[in-house]
Amino acid sequence: MLLGSLSFLYEKIKKKNKNKKKNKKISENIIIFFIQENFHENSKTLIFSIFPTVLTNLIIKFTIMNMDSKILFSKEEEYLNNLLYDKIGNFSTELLFRASEHNFNSDIFHEKCDQQGSTLVVIQNEYDHVYGGYSNISWNKNIQNQIDSTAFLWCVRPRMKSFGFKRSEQVGEQAMWNYEGYGPLYGKGNDLWITNKCNENKSSGYGSGQSFNCTGKDYGAKDEMLNTYDQCYCVIREYEVFKIYLFNKIE
Question: Which has the minimum average pLDDT: 7-21, 47-61, 137-151, 184-198?
């Protein structure tokens, strides 16, 4: 019933506002209101082909691509959604692990997140910096080093940037690491690392710049936060891991 109403509403608005670009945003906002009020988690099973392309992409953008994050502000989530969309197409997310809900235990991280396929890690540290990484390969505590040429790192607070591999590391031979007593690890060195009980010690951090093209300064860390290698060691306030489900990209 709701799906039919949405399609009818879309067609009616489209006819009424034909050639009136100034009303386009109003039309989208009305549709978005219906979507946000009426669609829930099971929207992932929508049959996209029955909708006009514009409406379908709105549904994807405002319901399916939304993350259940307690870290990200709306603008940061929008930036990250757009970054992921450009790299992997349409997607949905499922929260696998939130550190504060599991006592910041790295063993539980592996219990919840290993063998889950593509994941996105979102981290907030003591300086209120928000950053993380994406990988297409599953975490696996039984494999120390994993190759993933599609992995990348990113930050959204205090600045919004993404970081790919250095030219000498394009194959991604050391994109991901798994060690006992650690959570997510990206890059050799490592370029981004989370320790067990990371909320109680200053042993986690980012910025080695050995595999990925970034140092601590690139994340926005100030000089006093960095060591002589431009690494930022810090206490982790929170981190979240999301499973990424991919959909076919709609043109």
Answer: 7-21
Radius of gyration of the chain (CA): 20
Q: Cα dist. 196→99, 109, 232 in Å?
A: 10, 9, 17
pTM of the model: 0.77
Both tokens of 24, joined, read 């386009």
Phi, psi of 103 (to 5 degrees): 60, 25
Q: Verify cis geometry, omega within 30 degrees of 0, for the bond prior to 158.
A: yes
Retrieve residue 175's tokens: 């994109």
Domains in the chain: boundaries: 1-64, 70-246
The whole-angstrom separation of Cα 197 and Cα 5 is: 50
Q: CA 146, CA 165: separation in Å to the nearest integer?
A: 15
The span from the CA of 147 to the CA of 159, in Å, is 28
176 touches 186 (CB < 8 A): yes
* Confidence at residue 13, expressed as pLDDT on a 0 to 100 scale: 46
**DSSP of 74-112:** HHHHHHHHHHHHHHH-SEEEEEEEEGGGTTT-HHHHHHH
